[in-house]
Amino acid sequence: MRDAVIETLADLAAQDLRVMLITGDLGYGVIGKYAERFPNQFVNAGVAEQNMTAIACGMALSGWRVYTYSIANFPTLRCLEQVRNDICYHDCDVTILAVGGGFSYGQLGMSHFATEDLAILRALPNMRVVAPTETWEAQDLVRDLAKTKGPAYLRIDKDAGGMARRAGERAVLGKARRVREGADATIIATGAILREALAASDRLAARGVQCRVEAMHTIKPLDAAAIVAAAAETGGVVTLEEHSRIGGLTGAVAETLLSAGARPGFFRGVALDDVFPTVVGDQAWLRARHGMDAAAVEAAVVSALSHGAPLGKLAETA
N vs C: which end of the chain shows fewer Cβ within 10 Å? Predict the structure, then answer.
């Protein structure tokens, strides 16, 4: 996904001399070709993310369209004051490209887990928060963000949801993408963990439970209409995110439902508990270890439906 984002950014840089990419002294395996092709549209700020962010703000105020790049926690949490006071307060045209959402860097431990970023960034005024579910979706959303003024956070995952682009399909900023139809429940997922939502949908279908699946790539602005429709048209709502259950997709969806007065048959959030993970491993293993995989989503739907009127084959297999 990150390679596709940088390739798309290179296309934008070729069309617009105001595009500037700033790195915190990493990512050369990904951004090396960009730096060689556009030396006047590239800056290495060094291992100094606060300074990188301040530079980005100053350049944006001078007319540049700036992109900062680093591993997710570093261009956000390490320099949160600069993101808040410089970029967001001044409503600057700066997009934070954060590689390694969730457990992407699972072998490097807690310092490299991005599991609070969505909650923190969506709380900042003027900030748009985007977590693509697919590589091609990320490319579409980079182009949409380039057409929209103001701060943005693009959370890039090493994984991908696993669904190819369908004929005529494109991702649109702020608009959920429905990838499966079903009336028994809706699974709303953000980021590449959509892969687990799709697997859960397959497992549930084998039990006679048909799930709508929504790829909610934009956390802010959120597609409230899709969420309210899920509550009204399906049996209940389950959210799935590679993030803390506090303040991210789960919180945003719950806030939207309450504000709209919508009453889903049930609501469950499949996400990281309010803990710091203390073990390391690859992304898939950590998802399973922390109850954020297809089995966890399946269990959440089965449990919710079992407390109501069982549907289809569910009563026989639960």
Answer: C
Query: pTM for the whole thing?
Result: 0.94
Q: Is the pLDDT of residue 292 over 80?
A: yes
> In 30-49, which positions are buried (b, 16+ CB within 10 angstroms) versus exposed (e)?
bbeebbeebeebbbbbeeeb
CA 311 to chain centre: 31
Lookup result for tokens 């966890």: 296
Mean of pLDDT values over 275-289: 94
In this prediction, residue 318 carries a pLDDT of: 42
- Under a CB-based contact definition with an 8 Å cutoff, are residues 196 and 240 in contact? yes
> Region 48-74: what's the mean pLDDT?
97
Residue 146 CB contacts under 8 Å (≥ 6 apart), including other chains: 12, 16, 19, 65, 95
